[in-house]
Every structure is written in structure tokens, then in C-alpha cells.
Design brief:
The complex is a heterodimer of chains A (478) and B (302). With 478 residues, chain A is of the alpha/beta class. Chain A is built from 19 helices and 16 strands. Chain A is 34% helix and 16% strand. Chain B is α/β, with parallel strands linked by helices. In chain B, the strands form four sheets. A seven-stranded mixed β-sheet of chain B has the order 12-11-10-9-13-14-17, sandwiched between helices. In chain B, strands 5-6-2-1-7 form a five-stranded antiparallel β-sheet. Classes of the chains: A alpha/beta (478), B alpha/beta (302). The interface between A and B is large, with 52 and 54 residues.
């Protein structure tokens, strides 16, 4: 079937094309990517399912309004490079977003086909186009406008910082990114595991930015190595963008939380992903030896799924998710939930941990839990879990990973008191410009919203870049 | 920190390296067996660091991030000094480095600086390599006008470090050795008790060294209500407050040592919990250390 001569009926008759993946029993023994990507044939077949709506509602579901109908049409026509270019007009990190965006809550949720059929696999197609461009060596550097002689400092190299840097450099500003860690990419490298987002892809994107002239300074902690005021006054940056993410792990505040074997998800994932302790001893950083052990992860978000699937890959005998509510309330992406289930993750739902229990050497041996039932809806609209009386029991575990979310790191707040923060320590901005209360200082991503998504962080970085340009040049970026 | 590796022209006078940052070792010499003083080029850290702060170092590309106290700095020259005791793989690897070698990553200054004021009489106690960690704070206490007494303990004479440097900032300086081969025969706590018994009014005690030593000092000063500060050494990963691996229990509350510390009120620290938590990776550490020793051995033979 070709893209020109196909009726809507024929389009609708094509089933949604599954993306080939490693089998669960294979993948739980390695850290390679789960999904293998569409072949060109599969991609075209899937692209043909799109009925090319006059009013493509899918675009409304996309936080950065990718021209979805247009790029899908290009794929259907076999113009894969054209499709990649089209996506990049609106999204600078498509290979990443194609993999980690919650499409089922965004574009794919809006897709008209969902009324009667399954939605077009927009995320899979986005990923395909971006991978095709990269793997065939066809990534073209965008053109950079002539120098404006303005300098902007970007703090943090997560999706917010990277996308802000990308737009600013193309507009002709000199951009320097300051990153606290020794590696660039933020959560994309230290949080999201290799099996969901290969680090090579993040590296390739950053390499592109380097080629455009973005300067990266690793090992630079804003607030310690350098303050925002020093950047502005001593180093004469004309503006600063803060994209430092939400990186202060919350604990549950229950007894036994400091026993040996209790981790925050940040620590567990950082050890495994950033420090590559899954390759210990080739890499020096150790992590709890999960082999044959029982591991429980507390929480129901993406981070919890990543942690529990990581524990499974490290050889855990039983890898549990312990969650206070039911599956329906879990914030994790549906796809990740399904993957976890197939990989043999055990779900202990409607259970609330009340105490960690250890042996005389202070090693964790179990967790005392209460069974819960769902009551009335709470502020978030989700039904509030309430404990069932006398339902206490002990789940024997050797390792616990706490994954109940992150607050804001207070370093910037402490060292730059004139930036207004909320009660939750997030930075307060004007959402139209991402401008903070401090002149020429902008912020975006998780540090503003609290833990959110890659695409929202990216969108914020781009909004800020446009506003910074306008402020520095007195003209709009468009 | 910002050695020009490949620079691009920017509007400012400051140039940054891009790609792989590497940090040059300017000088390195052993102070005692297994304890090495290393001076590293890190201009920005040199300029900003305060007493009590530390850096995280990653020796090589596959290395772990380890915390080391900034023992001193030369802002003019743009260098910082660290003093490292070879414990396991990472510190031993670091101690094999010589002037001219490079270190892969160094980040800082991290941690809350020591609280410095004129307390009156301040006693700085260092045990083993803890002497090196206490040194910069002793300097700052002296500069703030305190009457500084230092007690530095080592197992034996050849393990005594920074004797001259400590004496230079002390109004009274004592060395103790466990085996009596030098100075006062006994533990630092015995010397401290002696000072207290002599009727000296002590306003602050700073104790840095092995956990049992810090705990013992806390017990000596507790009955007298002498303000006592210890610098804790939990296992760290990022050193910026992101992972919570460094959490310690102080006054029954959880604190992150890398941002809330590393210095805490000794009378409120749960030392047992710290000691237990530091055993988390014993088998892995042993494996790395043995493999490293084996590699060094093979290297020598070849
Ligand atoms: C395990 C995990 C899985 C996730 N899965 C998904 C998913 O599937 N889909 C999705 O859309 N979202 C997911 N998220 C959320 C998403 O990753 C974040 O919303 C997004 O990364 C936020 O981007 P950011 O740029 O604001 O911050 P970050 O990605 O957190 O980056 C901030 C960067 O700033 C650096 N930094 C912090 N403080 C300083 C400082 N003082 N000075 C200099 N640098 C500093 C940090 O080291 C970091 O590199 C996940 C998050 C986690 C933790
Ligand atoms: C704030 C702070 C300041 C320090 N300052 C100094 C200093 O100035 N000079 C010095 O010689 N040592 C210092 N240390 C201790 C030093 O960091 C450890 O000796 C070193 O990390 C051990 O690594 P290793 O691979 O050589 O030994 P390993 O064999 O890995 O471990 C030996 C012991 O060191 C501790 N340790 C292991 N890994 C870490 C880690 N990532 N972070 C912290 N501790 C760890 C554990 O208790 C372990 O039992 C400091 C520690 C902290 C927390
Ligand atoms: S809503 Fe669905 S069918 Fe319509 S254009 Fe978008 S992807 Fe295609
Ligand atoms: S070392 Fe990670 S929070 Fe302190």
C-alpha cells in the first residue's frame, strides 16, 4: 500500500504495529534496551494508520505541539529524514522523548482513533524517525545565527537546561552550561536506566550541542563552586537559566529507615546508572548485591518501576512494588507497568509500610506493613487509602528502595535569597517567560514544577530561551 | 578547575575547558607511610573553599566518587591540598599519583563550612589522618583569635603527621602515640581528660578521626557540657544532597552529612548507626582492594 492511494477504511484496517522487544525472560538478565525499534517497514505500516485529520487533535495533546500529522505523513511516504527534521522544528530531543514521554496521556490519548480503535503509535514513530536519522549518520547541525555578543549561563544539564541551551546558541548567544555532576544529562543519565534509555543516545544529543558551540563545565555546583550572583557580576553573564531539577530524595520518616540495605531511589539508581555499579568490579562503585535477595521498592511512579526492574536485573529473587493505593492510581506510565509485570515484578498493592526491621548487625530483614482499603477521594482526586485495623504483617526483605518523590535541593535558595521560592522550595516563575523574581534570572523544569516529565522540562527550557532572547535583544525570537 | 583545554572565545576574560576536564597534580609527597599530601590545580575551589569543606574526587574514568577534606589552598597559585590515607582501592590509587599526573574529576567546595568564632579556648583533636581534616579548622580557629590547643594522636611515631604545621597554629600542641614511641603515651582522650582535670576552661572541642575515637571524645566532654564538634565520614556518592546515602542520625533526626554537615554536635550523633552504615560494602571493598593490590604486585613483577 502506498501513502497516496489508500482509503481511510484501509488505513483503519491496519492493526497497531507492536514494536519488537527483547523477551522478558531474556531481558531480565541484561541492561540492554527493552525495545528494539521499528524497522522501516513497520514504521511505514504504522504511519499509514494515521488518517491525517483536518484538525489533528493529537497536536493539542503534545506539550510542545510537534506537527504530528505532518511528520507521520513523511514517514508514510518513506521520507524518514524529512520526518526527523519536521519533529525537530518543535522538539530538540526526539530520540529521548520518543522513548520516555507518557504518550498515552498526551498525544496518543487525544488521537481520534482511540474512539474506535487503538491510537496511532505516535511515540514509536517519533523514536523511529530520530533513530533513523542518527543511525544513518544524517543528523544535520542547525544553523547558528551570527553572534549577539551576549552570554547566558545555564545551570543544570537535564532536559530543561539542554533545550534552553540549544535554542539560545542557535539564536547567536554564547552559552555555558554548568553541571554539578561529572556527567551531562541530568535524570536522563543518573535516573532513567540504560534498558529504557541508552546513554549513547543522550551522549549523541549533547555532542550535537557541543558542535554548535555550547560550552559544558562539569563538576560545577551552583551555590558552592559558584553562585548565581557571581555568574552575573563577576563573570558577566547577561542572563542565567536555572534548571537544577528536583533532586532531594524524600524518606518516609518511619522507624528503621537508616538500617543497612535501605536506599533512596536516587541513590540506588545513581549507583547503578551513573556510576555503573551493575558492572562492578570493572567500575569501582559498589551497590547492594541483590542476587537471590528480596527487594521491595516503595512507590508507584516511573522511578519506582525503574528501581524495581533494575533490582530484578541485578538478580533479585523477589522484586516487589509496595504501594499504598491500587494499580489504577499508580502514576507510572502504563507501558512501564506492563513491562514490569511481564518481567515478574510482584505487586503488593494497598499496603503501607510502617516500620523497617533489622537484625543485630543493623541489616534490614523485613518491613512491617499495614493493609489498606480505598476510601473517599482526596485532594488529588484519587481515592484515599485508609488502614485496615489489625492487618499488620511482616514482609521479609533484604533491601528496600524508597521512591516516594523528591523535593528541591536548597543550595540555590540558600545562596541566592532574592530568588523567590514557594513553600515547597520550588522556584516561583512567571509561566509565560519563566522569569524568576530576580532580574535576568530564569528557571524551568522540575525545580519549578516539582517532579514532572522530560517534555515539560524541555518546553520550559524553550519558553525561557525565547524570553531571554527577547529580554537581551529587545526583539522576539520568532 | 578550569584549565584551558580547548577554549572558545567568549565575551569574558574567563575561559573554560570543554570535553574531558582533567585536573593536574602540582606536587605530591608522602607525609608518613601510606599518607600522602597532594596539591592539585583547582583555581575556583582554591578561591572559594572555607575550613571544614571537602571535595569529591574521581581518580579515573571508572572510579568511584570519594570525599576528601580540603586541607589547605593557595588561591594565588590556584591550587588546593588534600591529605589522603590509603585505605582501599580509590585512596591507594590516588596515593600512587605523582606531580604531573592528572585526576579525572574533582568537585567542590562541598559541605557546610566549620562554624568559626572566638570561642575562647578551643581544643582540636585529630586521630590518624583526622589530623589532616582538623588542620584547616584549627588554622581558622587560631585566626579567629582562639587560644588553640591541639592534641594529635597516632598509633606510633612514624605515623605522626603535620606536627610542625599544627604546632605553628597552636598555643599548646600535644602529640600522643598509642605505643608511647613519641610524645604522650596513650590515647587522645586521656590527654584531653588531663587538660580538663588540670582545671583549664575549655570552650570548644573539635574531634576528628576514627569513629570510636570521636565517640570516646564525646563521652569525655559530655559530663562537663563542653561544646564538642565532630566531622562525620559516612559513605557518600554525589556529595550534593541528591542521594541521601550519607544520612546520619543526629538528635534522632536524619541529616545528610554532605550538605547539613560534615560537622555535627558530637553529643547528639548516633555513632553506632554511622559505624554500622559504613560497613555496608565491606565485601565489595575487600574485593576491589585485593584486586588492586594484585594488579600493583603484577605490575612490579613485570
Ligand atoms: C528514575 C526516573 C524516571 C523517570 N522517568 C520518566 C519518564 O519515563 N518519562 C518522563 O517524561 N519523565 C520521567 N522522569 C521525570 C523526568 O526525568 C524529569 O521530569 C526531568 O528530567 C526534569 O528535567 P530537569 O531538566 O528539570 O531536571 P534534571 O533532569 O533533574 O536535571 C537537573 C540537572 O541539574 C544538576 N544540578 C542540580 N543542582 C545543581 C547545582 N546546584 N549546580 C549545577 N547543577 C545542578 C543535576 O545534577 C542535573 O544534572 C523520571 C524521573 C526519574 C528520577
Ligand atoms: C567529609 C569526608 C571527608 C573526608 N576526608 C578525608 C581526608 O581528608 N583524608 C582521607 O584520607 N580520608 C578522608 N575521608 C575518608 C575517605 O573518603 C575514605 O577513606 C575513602 O572514601 C575510602 O575509599 P577507598 O576506596 O580507598 O576505600 P574502601 O575500601 O572503599 O573503603 C574503606 C572505608 O572507607 C569508607 N568509604 C568507602 N567508600 C566511601 C565513600 N564513597 N565515601 C566515604 N567513605 C567511604 C568506608 O567506611 C570503608 O569502610 C573523608 C570522608 C568524608 C565523608
Ligand atoms: S489524531 Fe491520530 S489520526 Fe489524527 S492526525 Fe493525529 S495521529 Fe493522525
Ligand atoms: S552523598 Fe548523596 S546526599 Fe550526601
Amino acid at each position: 500500500m502506498d501513502a497516496q492511494h489508500i482509503t481511510t477504511k484501509e488505513r483503519l484496517a491496519i492493526p497497531r504495529q507492536e514494536m519488537p522487544a527483547q523477551l522478558p525472560e531474556v531481558r531480565i538478565h541484561n541492561f540492554n534496551e527493552v525495545h528494539l525499534g521499528y524497522t522501516p517497514e513497520l514504521a511505514r505500516q504504522e504511519a499509514l494508520r494515521c488518517i491525517q485529520c483536518k484538525d489533528p487533535v493529537c497536536i493539542k495533546g503534545c506539550p510542545v505541539n510537534i506537527k504530528i500529522d505532518q511528520f507521520i505523513k513523511l514517514i508514510a511516504e518513506g521520507n524518514f529524514l524529512g520526518a526527523a527534521k519536521k519533529i525537530k522544528e518543535d522538539n530538540v530531543l526526539p530520540a529521548i522523548c520518543g522513548r520516555v514521554c507518557p504518550q498515552e496521556d498526551q498525544c496518543e490519548k487525544m488521537c481520534i482513533l482511540t474512539k474506535k480503535h487503538e491510537s496511532v503509535a505516535i511515540g514509536n514513530l517519533e523514536r523511529f524517525a530520530a533513530d533513523y536519522e542518527r543511525e544513518t549518520g544524517n543528523v544535520e547541525l542547525p544553523s547558528v545565527k551570527s553572534s549577539t555578543a551576549k552570554k547566558v549561563a545555564v545551570i543544570g544539564s537535564g532536559p530543561a537546561g539542554l533545550s534552553c541551551a540549544n535554542d539560545l546558541i542557535q539564536l547567536g548567544h554564547a552559552v555555558t552550561v554548568f553541571e554539578a555532576l561529572h556527567e551531562l544529562g541530568g535524570v536522563l543519565v543518573y535516573g532513567i536506566p540504560e534498558f529504557r534509555l541508552p546513554k549513547e543516545i543522550v551522549k549523541a544529543e549533547i555532542e550535537g550541542l557541543k558542535q554548535l558551540g555550547v560550552v559544558f563545565v562539569t563538576n560545577a555546583v551552583a551555590g558552592r563552586s559558584i553562585t548565581v550572583d557571581e555568574l552575573l557580576k563577576e563573570e558577566h553573564f547577561d542572563a542565567v537559566f536555572i534548571g537544577v531539577g528536583a533532586g532531594l530524595p524524600w524518606f518516609m520518616g518511619i522507624l528503621g529507615e537508616n538500617l543497612l540495605g535501605v536506599y533512596s531511589a536516587n541513590e540506588f539508581l545513581t549507583r547503578v546508572n551513573l556510576m555503573k555499579s551493575y558492572q562492578f568490579p570493572e567500575n569501582d562503585t559498589p551497590v547492594f548485591n541483590c542476587k537471590g535477595k528480596n527487594v521491595a521498592v516503595f512507590g508507584g511512579g516511573n522511578t519506582a518501576m525503574d528501581a524495581v526492574r533494575t533490582a530484578k536485573r541485578l538478580g533479585a529473587e523477589h522484586a516487589y512494588i509496595v504501594y499504598r493505593r491500587s494499580k489504577a492510581e499508580m502514576p507510572a506510565r502504563l507501558e512501564e507497568l506492563h513491562h514490569a509485570e511481564k518481567e515478574g515484578i510482584e505487586f503488593m498493592l494497598l499496603m503501607n509500610p510502617v516500620e523497617f526491621i533489622g537484625n543485630d548487625q543493623q541489616w534490614l530483614t523485613g518491613v512491617k506493613c499495614l493493609k489498606m482499603e480505598l476510601g473517599e477521594p482526596d485532594d488529588s482526586g484519587r481515592r484515599r487509602p485508609v488502614p485496615i485495623k489489625d492487618s499488620e504483617f511482616i514482609l521479609p526483605i533484604d533491601m528496600a528502595v524508597i521512591s516516594i518523590g523528591n523535593g528541591s535541593n536548597p543550595l540555590i535558595k540558600q545562596t541566592t535569597p532574592d530568588i523567590e521560592v514557594s513553600k515547597r522550595d520550588t522556584i516561583v516563575v512567571d509561566m509565560n517567560t519563566m522569569a524568576t523574581s530576580k532580574e535576568n534570572v530564569y528557571a524551568g523544569g522540575d525545580i519549578v514544577t516539582g517532579g514532572a516529565t522530560v517534555i515539560l522540562a524541555m518546553g520550559a527550557g524553550r519558553t525561557a530561551a525565547a524570553a531571554i532572547h527577547e529580554k537581551l535583544m529587545g526583539v522576539s525570537a520568532k | 578547575m578550569f584549565t584551558p583545554y580547548r577554549t572558545i572565545q567568549q565575551v569574558s576574560i574567563i575561559t573554560y575547558e570543554i570535553e574531558e576536564p582533567m585536573y593536574q597534580i602540582v606536587s605530591a609527597q608522602f607525609l608518613a607511610e601510606n599518607i600522602k599530601k597532594i596539591e592539585i590545580e583547582a583555581p575556583r575551589i582554591a578561591k572559594k573553599r572555607k575550613a571544614g569543606q571537602f571535595v569529591m574526587i574521581r581518580v579515573g574514568e571508572t572510579g568511584e566518587r570519594i570525599p576528601l577534606t580540603i586541607a589547605g589552598s593557595d588561591p594565588e597559585k590556584g591550587t588546593i591540598t588534600i591529605i589522603v590515607q590509603g585505605m582501599g582501592k580509590s585512596t591507594r590509587e590516588l596515593n600512587r599519583k605523582e606531580a604531573g599526573d592528572t585526576i579525572h574529576d574533582i568537585v567542590g567546595p562541598l559541605g557546610t563550612p566549620s562554624h568559626i568564632e572566638n570561642f575562647g579556648t578551643a581544643v582540636s583533636i585529630g586521630g590518624g589522618v583526622g589530623t589532616a581534616i582538623a588542620y584547616p579548622t584549627a588554622v581558622a580557629l587560631k585566626e579567629a583569635g582562639n587560644n588553640v590547643i591541639t592534641i594529635n594522636g597516632a598509633r606510633s611515631k612514624d605515623l605522626v603527621i603535620l606536627e610542625k604545621e599544627m604546632a605553628a597554629v597552636s598555643d599548646e600542641a600535644y602529640i600522643t602515640t598509642d605505643d608511647g614511641s613519641y610524645g604522650f603515651h596513650g590515647f587522645v582522650t586521656q590527654k584531653l581528660q588531663e587538660l580538663i582535670d588540670s582545671g583549664k576552661k575549655i570552650d570548644l572541642v573539635l574531634a576528628i578521626g576514627p569513629i570510636p575515637m570521636m565517640r570516646a571524645v564525646a563521652e569525655v566532654t559530655r559530663p562537663y557540657n563542653i561544646k564538642t564538634v565532630v566531622s562525620l565520614n559516612p559513605i557518600m556518592v554525589d556529595g550534593t544532597g541528591m542521594c541521601g546515602g550519607c544520612r546520619v542520625t543526629v538528635n534522632n533526626e536524619t541529616k545528610f552529612a554532605c550538605v547539613d554537615g560534615p560537622e555535627f554536635d558530637a553529643h547528639q550523633v548516633d555513632f553506632k548507626n554511622l559505624m554500622d552504615r559504613n560497613k555496608l560494602y565491606l565485601p565489595e571493598e575487600k574485593h576491589s582492594t585485593d584486586a588492586f593490590a594484585h594488579k600493583c604486585h603484577m605490575h612490579k613483577q613485570a
